[in-house]
Amino acid sequence: MVVVASLLAPSVKAQAQVQMDRQTRAREWRDPGNLGELRKEAERSAKELEEATKALEKRRSTIAASEKELKTKLTALQELERRLAVMRQPVSQMVELLYEQPIAAGGVLPFLTEGADEGTLRALTDATHIVAVRQQAVEQTSALYKETERLAAEAQELRAGNLLAEAQLAAEVDTLRQRSDKIVKSLTAALVKLGIKIDKVGRAALGCDPLRAATAGDYPNGLIPKGMLCPLQQKGFSLRADATIAFVSLNEAYRKRFGKPMCVTDAYRNLAEQQSIYYRRPGFAAVPGRSNHGLGLAVDLCGGVERSGSAEFVWMERNSKKYGWFHPSWAYSSPFEPWHWEYDPKMDSLL
Fold first, then answer.
1. What is the mean pLDDT of residues 152-156?
2. Which residues are in the D-alanyl-D-alanine carboxypeptidase-like core domain (predicted)?
3. What are the DSSP calls for 153-205, one per residue?
4. Which of 66, 67, 131, 291 lies at a 20 to 30 A Cα distance from 233?
């Protein structure tokens, strides 16, 4: 049972740690409207799932090695069975060999009366050797039986331990996956409640999954598929999932301060839109394929924010970084774009 215990110990420990983490974090995000905390919880959950999945793959690799060891043991077991089969030959064969010796011709009496010739003595020596070989075979057979029983027990223990350990880890991964999905659904529901429009079949919900944000970064600037973007509360505009979630939180804080939502004139721009703006407004747009708008990480604002020094602009300067948004240094002078704001995932992760 030592093998089984060693296989199960890491999984049991991991399961206990996961349970502890759940209880701790359950106290951290009681308010489902806290989008930032929900997003971070989803990311933490995804990380746990990733680590558990890696642990499962590692365990499966260990199990594969154990199965190889098991195969070796079973092969050894088959060899022992073969050797035992040879040793189980009827003892009568040995007896027949004894009868074939010259003892039968010379008789035992000459030996007993000290009249035995050389042939009789050789026959008796051969008989003694045959008896010794038989005794050795009996002892070897007994030892082989014990070895067979030991190998069979080890093989059974290895297989049972492997199956149990894999099943337990797989169940743990499945639990973490369900938990991650539940958190993302809660986050999506909170976004819908705050005005994010998601179609009836939930296609847009995939774009609002913060766990897909990094995947959106795999696409070239301006070529992110629509399904990988999350719509804003402001109709017709969208961003990368993490940027949208942070922007919605910022927008709600802005609404609380000014009694109205933020005014948006631009968000994600595909490559064609970047080219159009670049040629229409030379000097006020990045070279197509290099704009942060094409990454789904920038917005252009109106409603007062576009005027440097306004109450709205000053409020944004003081509060936007709390949500991962900032006004880039170049936008203060070259070119002067007070309306342009960008989202930094790294900044948001430190908040």
1. 77
2. 238-345
3. HHHHHHHHHHHHHHHHHHHHHHHHHHHHHHHHHHHHHHHHHTT----TT-HHH
4. 291
Residue-range domain boundaries for the chain: 2-193, 217-350
Q: What is the layout of strands, in order, in the sheet containing 263-266?
A: 263-266, 298-302, 340-343, 325-326
Classify residue 304 by its DSSP letter: T
Residue given tokens 């930094």 in the structure block:
344
| CA–CA dist 292, 286 (Å, integer) | 9
pLDDT in tens, 289-340: 889 999 999 999 999 999 999 999 999 999 999 999 999 999 998 889 999 9
Helix 92-99 and helix 118-193, axial crossing angle in degrees, nearest 10: 160
C-beta of residue 262 within 8 angstroms of C-beta of residue 309: no
DSSP state of 237: -
If we measure between CA atoms, which residue out of 290, 288, 234 comes closest to residue 262?
234
CATH 3.30.1380.10 fits 217-350, yes or no: yes
Q: Which residues does residue 243 pair with via DSSP β-bridges, in sequence order?
A: none
Backbone angles phi, psi at 234, to 5 degrees: -80, 115
199, two tokens: 């179609």
